[in-house]
Amino acid sequence: MVDNLSAIPQAGAPRPLDALRSARVALVHEWFGATGGSENVFRQISSLLPEAERFVLWKDHDAVEPNLRESWMARTPLRKTKAGALPLMPLVWRTLSQERFDLVISSSHAFAHTVRLGSSEETRYLSYVHSPARYIWSPNFDGRGSNPMLTVPRRVLQSADVRLSRHVNAYAANSEEVRARIARYWKRDAVVINPPVDVDYFAAAPAADQHQPREYLLGFGRWIPYKNFDLIIQIAEAAGLPVVIAGSGPEETALRRVAERVSVPVTFEVRPSKERLRQLYWGARALLFPVHEDFGIIPVEAQACGTPVVGLRRGGLLETVVDGETGFLIDSQDPASFVPLIHRLAELSQDRIRSHAHGFSEQQFAARMTAWIADAGR
User: Fold this and answer.
1) What is the pLDDT of residues 198-243, one digit of tens each?
2) Which of 43, 163, 246, 373 would disulfide-bridge 220, Cβ 3.0–4.6 Å?
3) CATH number at residue 183
4) Is the dihedral of CA 345, 347, 349, 352 positive or negative?
5) Is 317 exposed, middle or buried (0-12, 13-18, 19+ CB in 10 A)?
6) Can you tell me the distance from the alpha carbon of 191 to that of 163, in angstroms, rounded to the nearest whole number?
7) 333-375 residue pLDDT tens
8) Residue 4 confidence (pLDDT)
């Protein structure tokens, strides 16, 4: 965590980034989807530097974000396949524009941190990293890129990733987990600035939502294999409690089959609205999160509603959950091992859980990001 960066400038006081008003600033993101945590980070950084030019590889057709300048790759069929586009991304970031900028800030989870929009002598390069590209550096994490036939191409891309990013002046990581990967793979240090979470919205639920009985366990996210939603259903059965599975994804049919075989009620909420998700958080006894994530915004949203988190003792949960105070962390993935922790949920204070979540607010992100840019961008 960045030290001494929590003070937010008072109204009317000079903003730390005012000195950049006369500078040419570029903000760079990978592909821009309709929804996603990395896209939200990019929006938040953009709000701090509203006059900056904003570049992306391409914008998905259902994304409505204005004023994004797309790369030449957006005019090719490669925009439809991230895997096919991956080998060409370093080239795209080196041929993005002939314009030159004084400061370039990338929001990177693939190759955006390799972008060049000016010489390393005249341009400052900062990069906020969601993760070094998992499909080339840690393919076993979620299975992408783990085909043995991709071993040689992966090594080539790893070498290019390191070689083409030597000009980056400073890195920020979204978690201690990602900071460790940056050190391991790129041999660089980074400050940690956790992503912004809209805790104010989730905490300020209508009274009817806040006073509903907490009767079920909740799992929320994208329904893909490494998110372990089948395990969430099995944990609920072991605990003898109903479970709500919210989200969407390609595993829906398989998960519905799992649900048919268990003895507890399983309710599917497909693509819940933000308002409905807030209702679901407030009505849950606990959010089950047995997954290894880089950071994990969902557990913070749940805690903003006073909902404890029960999940794995690894990754981002080590930063977002205070074990024994705002939830419980466990090393095992045996469904029966979760049951004693679920029986202890009444020991936890909802007020303590909600107050902890406010440390990850959008205001905290803005203050820390502003201080980092002002310091590292000089």
Assistant:
1) 999 999 999 999 999 999 999 999 999 989 999 999 999 999 999 9
2) 246
3) 3.40.50
4) negative
5) buried
6) 21
7) 999 999 999 999 999 999 999 999 999 999 999 999 999 999 8
8) 40
Q: What is the CATH number of the domain that holds 245?
A: 3.40.50.2000
Q: Are residues 298 and 309 in the same domain?
A: yes
The reply to whether 269 and 186 lie within a common domain is: no
- Decide: helix, strand or coil at residue 56: strand
CA–CA dist 220, 229 (Å, integer): 9
Q: How many angstroms separate the CA atoms of 20 and 27, rounded?
A: 13
Cα→Cα distances 348→25, 35, 209, 332, Å: 46, 32, 20, 21
Residue 313's domain spans which residues?
Answer: 199-360
Residue appearing with tokens 């660089």: 188
Q: Specify which residues 128 forms β-bridges with.
A: 107, 172
What is the number of other CB atoms lying within 10 angstroms of the CB of residue 157? 22
Residues 131 and 99 in one domain: yes
Give 118's Cβ-side CA count (13 Å radius).
18
Q: Which amino acid is at 201?
A: Y
Residues 211 and 284 in one domain: yes
Q: How far apart are CA 271 and CA 248, in angstroms?
A: 6
* Location of structure tokens 């994490």: 141
Strand pairing report for 191-192 and 216-222: unpaired
Residue 243 CB burial class (10 angstroms; 0-12, 13-18, ≥19): buried
Quick one: 349 and 368 in the same domain? no
Average pLDDT rounded to a whole number, residues 327-338 = 97
Token digits of residue 156: 């080539």
> Taking a C-beta distance cutoff of 8 angstroms, is the pair 259, 233 a contact?
yes
Evaluate whether residue 247 is within a structural domain. Answer: yes
Rounded to two decimals, what is the model's pTM? Answer: 0.88
Look-up: residue for tokens 């000009």? 167
Does residue 367 share a domain with residue 302?
A: no
Joined together, the tokens standing for residue 63 give 């994304």
Instruction: Round to whole Å and give the CA distance between 88 and 111.
Output: 10
Check whether residue 297 and residue 344 sit in a common domain.
yes
